[in-house]
Each structure stands twice: as C-alpha cells, then as structure tokens.
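Quick start: read one record
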Amino acid sequence: MEGNRLNLLDRIPMRGRGPRIPRPQKRDLGHPMAMVGLAALLLMAGCRQDMQDQPKIISQRGSEMFADHRGARPQVVNTVARGQLHEDSYFYTGVVQGANGYREEKNLMPFPVTIEVLKRGQERFNVYCTPCHSRVGNGLGEIVERGYKPAANLHDQVRLAQPLSHYFYVMTHGYGAMPDYSAQLTPVDRWAVAAYIRALQLSQAATTADVPAGVNVKNLTEVADEHHLPEGYAQPWALPSTAIQAYPHTSEGTPAMAPANPADPLIKVPTSNVPPSNPAPAAAK
C-alpha cells in the first residue's frame, strides 16, 4: 500500500510544479569524419562546370572551339541573310553594269508607276525635299531664306537631262552638300520620290497640248484665288533678300549643310597694313 501511495503522489502535480515531461533521448549521430566526408561529396557534386563553360559563342569574344580563336565566324561563301537577297540590283542601287565596265544610270522605273506611287512620292518629297528644293523643286526652299546655299534647281537643263535613276542614286549616296537619305527613305520610297520629281518637272513645263481632250484646265492664278492664297503666290519665285549670294555651283559640299559661301562676297581684306611679301628666291640652276 505504501508503494502504491507513493506512485499516486508522483502522478499528482504539486503546487508550483508542472507535469513531468520526459526528456528526449540522445541519439548517436555517428563519427564527425563521416559528416565531413558527406559534405565533401556534396561539394564535389556542385563543382561541375557543365553549365559554366557552355559550348556557345558570345559576341565580341574569343573562343577556344576554333583554331583561329575567333568567336565571330565569317559568313559561308555564297550565302545571304534572310531579307537581304537584293536579287534585283537595279532596284537597290539605281545603276546597271554597262558594256564598258562602268555603272550606268537608266531612265527606267523598276516597277509600274501608279497614282498611289505618285501620291506616296509627293508625300515623301514634301517631308524631306521641300526644305531645300521647295514644293515646286526650284531650289529656293525655306532653308535658303535662313542663309544656306541654294539647292539644285530640278527644272534646269542639267537636271532635266538626268536619267530617272540618277535621283534615286543621289538620295541613296548624297551629292555635294546634300547628305544621303537612305536611312529616312526606303528603296521603294526613293523610287516613288524619283517618279514624283519627273512628274513635277513635267508639270512645270506642261502646255495645253499635254492635257487630254475634255479635261478642264484652270489657270494657276485662279486656283490660288479659290484657295484664298496670298497675292503673288502663283508668280515665279525670286531669291529672297536674306539669301546668300551664291558663287557658281561646284561639286564640293559642306558638312551638315553649312553655308558654303561668305555672308557678303563683296567684303575684302584691307591691304594697307599688310606688309609686302618678299619674292621667292629663284631656283638654283
């Protein structure tokens, strides 16, 4: 009885004491060297370089894969990138290989000219060409009124005699003071502008005989009055008084369309304070 009483008292919680919680038993985790070996195996498994040293080419870097150690490989001979076939060389260059070995321009469009093509050419011409060449192509655009060299007059005898592809070539490569517009105009748009230039030339020299029968022809002055344009709008344009008096045109251009001529050609350097120069010695015989 005494023993049973003691066992019951042990099970009854005493004041100030909580229930007895059995302590966890200690487990043997093994020898420390085994843990070190396991860690070493895991470390070796994670040190593989398959993902780090990938067999691929990185741009602008060398490569150990090829004998010349160049990552950028030359193109295979006679291969063309997608979208760069350019099989019709005249469409992309505006010139053909002549019999004499030189490149020749042709008075020929590479595709049919429709009213949509002319409208597109007019829209692109008004955006990129009129600042220098004006809306009618006489070379007296708004840029001339700000002191720049007059642009080429598309209606003079020199430009009228140029083949049609000449305008495409100039827009592609530039000419003189004119920069190229290959970045602004696609090949199709350049041809459309060339076609519109030819139509513009015909319009400025057209006569009543060129008008089809039955078509009503209005005088340009009447058209200007109908659109409430200022007086003199339909008259021939003159060089503005603010323009630079240009010297005869040459094939030399200036960077960024800078003025090619001095502000006043009549200004001369005074010679009163300039000492006379000594004549050069005669060459020894």
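The domain at 86-209 is CATH 1.10.760.10 (Cytochrome Bc1 Complex; Chain D, domain 2).
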